[in-house]
Amino acid sequence: MDFKNMGKVSVITPSYNSADFISETIESVQSQTYTNWEMIIVDDCSKDQSVKLIEAKQLEDERIKLIKLMRNGGPAYARNQAILAADGRYLAFLDSDDQWHPQKLEKQILFMHQNGYSFSYTAYRIMQEGGNPTEVVFHMPSQITYKDLLKNTAIGTLTVVLNQEKLGKVQMPLYRDCSEDYGLWMSILSHGVTAYGLNEELALYRKCNESLSSNKWKSARKTWNTYRKVGRSNLPSTIWYFLNYSVRAMRKHTRTS
Fold first, then answer.
1. Domain annotation covers residue 86
2. Residue 194 sits in a domain of what CATH number?
3. Which of 57, 124, 146, 205 could form a cystine bridge with 189, CB 3.0-4.6 A?
């Protein structure tokens, strides 16, 4: 397969105190059968050994690039800096504790290339904090429109690939009290774009045990704020969308508990 003609993939990875997992995350990118990629890791003022581990990986692979921020800006700001530095045709998102299957990029880029899609996502599996895969797999609908997205936060960030030649230079909203990735998908789809799902399990999402109940309520508040600030929904619409979100979120939380 001619990966060069299909285009480079810029992998967007924010990192903050990620020493426990970052090496495995990088290795999952290095293992990709699709080899035309760059991995842009933005360290958000880590206080552990993250930077040293990333720099060690840089020495063995010139496709890995590190940006060290001078002040802590949060994951959305870190991702935005990586996006600004990216020169690939495609943007792919992978957080510093998650992993990809070796054929993830090859299958997804071919899926987009053959169909002319600008936004795609895949199914993914939950893994425990220690790295053991669970039985929980989130399968995806074949497509999601803007109206679908308002009632469903199913898209996993670690599975998303965007064609920035078609969409332009996107940026995540910098509201700390919003869901920044969901806000970006909302912004893109609000312009008539449809996101398409490759319903194949190609990624592993690490579920950490720290403050699970607290994170659930924090996520709910962020989703509400995203409707109001990014989607600019009025109060009745926000309540309707949030009720739909809540039902799906409870089902999702029950599966992963």
1. yes
2. 3.90.550.10
3. 146
pLDDT tier for residue 212 given thresholds of 50, 70 and 90: very low
Q: Which of 69-83, 143-157, 241-255 has the highest mean pLDDT?
A: 69-83
What does the DSSP assignment read for the chain?
--HHHH--EEEEEEESS-TTTHHHHHHHHHT-S---EEEEEEE---SSSHHHHHHHHHHH-TTEEEEE-SS---HHHHHHHHHHH--SSEEEE--TT-EE-TTHHHHHHHHHHHHT-SEEEEEEEEEETTS-EEEEEE---SEE-HHHHHT-----GGG-EEEHHHH-S------TTS-HHHHHHHHHHTTT--EEEEEEEEEEEEE--TTHHHHHHHHHHHHHHHHHHTS---HHHHHHHHHHHHHHHHHHHHHH-
Phi-psi region of 40 (alpha: psi -120 to 50; beta: other; left: phi over 0): beta
Query: What pTM, to 2 d.p., does this model score?
Result: 0.90
Q: CA-to-CA distance for 239 and 105, rounded, in angstroms?
A: 37
The tokens of 115 are what?
């169909």
In this predicted structure, the answer to whether residue 255 has a pLDDT above a threshold of 70 is: no
Instruction: Compute the distance between CA of residue 181 and CA of residue 189 in angstroms, rounded to an integer.
Output: 12
What tokens appear for 225 in the block? 């704020």
Does 59 fall in a domain?
Answer: yes
Contact call for residues 97 and 28 (beta carbons, < 8 A): no
Residue 246 lies in a domain: no
Range of the domain at 23: 3-210
Question: Is 230 domain-assigned?
Answer: no
